[in-house]
Amino acid sequence: MNVLQTGKGSRHEGEEMIAPRLPLGLHRILWIFLASLPAPSLAQSRMPQDFAISGDEGQLLGWQQTHAAEDGAATRWSIRRLLAYTVDGHQPMRNQITVTVRVTGDRWESLDYEIASDNRTRKFRIVLNGAAATVEELGRGGSSRTQALDPALPFAQPELLAGLPVGPFQTFDAGRGRIVKREGRFVDLPPQETRKRQLYLMYEDDRPVDGWIVAGDGETDIERAVRPNFSTPLRFALAPAADPPRDPPGNARVRHPMIASPYDIPPDARGGHIRFRFDLPHAVAETLPQTAEQGVEVTDSGARIDVCTDCGPSLSDDPAQLARWTQPTPWLQSDDRVIADAARTARSLGGSDATVMDELARIARRRLEGVDFAGHYSASAAWRRRAGDCTEDAVLLAALARAAGIPALVASGMVYTRERYHQASDAFIPHSWVVAYLDGEWRSVDMTLGALDSTHVALTLGEGDAQSVAGSYFIAGLIEWQDMAEVRPRPSD
């Protein structure tokens, strides 16, 4: 096994390169695929067409079908997406989204949104009426709320390829059960073999949360689209309307989300300072988070990320921001009685914030005794389910911290593992951890792995919501490695 090679002639002062073990450019297959697509010029797509959905090796993973029917002066669109496959190391999954939209002209009047998986179904009814909307979750334990809308903004569901609006728009976020404001932007990618490529980005609070790489007919229809993902991008290819959708066989297999590391990273290097260089669209590189441990510099081709104990500029210590980051949210329910009681117990033991945080991590670890890689649950749901993975670890610990008066956020990105994990080793895998304000300084806390090392690369920083975590998967799917280096002082002459 390769180890760190020391020597002269390092390309960057103060760096010693980690010995290469695997070729770089692990995502070139995505760009090669895109180079074969027609040149897009998409300002805004119409309602979605029918698509076949495939994986990296062309295996059928699902389909999306659209049906239109006249409803008086309106048109009722029904969009149905079905995915069925097995991720290595997990149980087979089957997921279906059905959305029915009633549209008059270009004005959305209502939508019914249903998400069905193997063990759960959620249904929503949304009625839009000018400056307000009623969002009702149907079924047992359902709820209803009225939200203010901006009547000047269009409504769209880009995740279903149901409109790719440019500029601010409104959309229903099923994960949060509410309507949110986002902004859509098209970014030109470098041409390849004279073909034009475009990346469609969806922003929320100035952060990219999702997007597509699209190709169309030069006007408004999409012929092909790729949704970048951590390791297996989903490829949507236009299917002729005359072809009835085929149920996916369900036995298609895709890799567990991971990126094989281009370098072997020994333990000593993980405990020091590592510098990553990635090709990444500037519109995304400019939004990468900086923490006390992570510094980001936008480069000509993407981003340089330095990770070490004190590599970053840290986060804001503005009192108003700190106060905001102690408040409960729909994902970090620090006002949940049992979470608040547990935090109060930890605080009553006395000691510094760091000591309290250690106790909160012990409480969370004892509570989440089961390991469950399925789904993504809020802090309250994780507490009651008594199981989860790193995302549940992070949201529960962040909620406990907030309940104890400690400002906390959830970082999502990737981390290196040398050990075998879901049929692969020496790989970067998805990961989440907590960033907390402890005794006057921001520090990252990883209760899942027990320690933060220099292979923790944060791609998003938020409040543990599903969209923030999904955004990290999306950004990881856009990354193309350039190189990686261990940074250490040169020996004195």
Describe this protein's structure.
The chain folds into two domains: 28-254, no CATH class; 267-487, C8orf32 fold (Roll), CATH 3.10.620.30. It contains nine helices and 27 strands. The protein is α+β, with helices and mostly antiparallel strands and 493 residues long. It has helices at 28-35, 267-270, 282-285, 319-324, 337-348, 353-367, 379-385, 390-403, 466-478; strands spanning 15-17, 51-54, 60-71, 74-87, 92-104, 107-116, 121-129, 132-138, 144-148, 167-173, 178-192, 195-204, 207-216, 222-227, 234-238, 253-254, 259-260, 273-279, 294-298, 302-307, 370-371, 387-388, 408-417, 427-438, 441-445, 457-462, 480-487. It has a 15-stranded mixed sheet that branches. Strands 1-27-18-20-19 form a five-stranded antiparallel sheet, with no helix packed on it. Strands 17, 23, 24, 25 and 26 form a five-stranded antiparallel sheet that branches. The longest helix has 15 residues, at 353-367. The radius of gyration is 23 Å and the shape is globular.
Q: What kind of sheet is the major sheet?
A: 15 strands, mixed
Structural class: alpha+beta
Poorly predicted parts: 1-45
Roughly how many Å apart are the termini? Answer: 30 Å
Shape: globular
Number of helices: 9
Number of domains: 2
**Percent of residues in β-strands:** 35-45%
Helix content: 10-25%
State mean pLDDT (0 to 100 scale).
Answer: 83
Measured on Cα atoms, how large is the radius of gyration? 23 Å
The counted number of beta strands is: 27
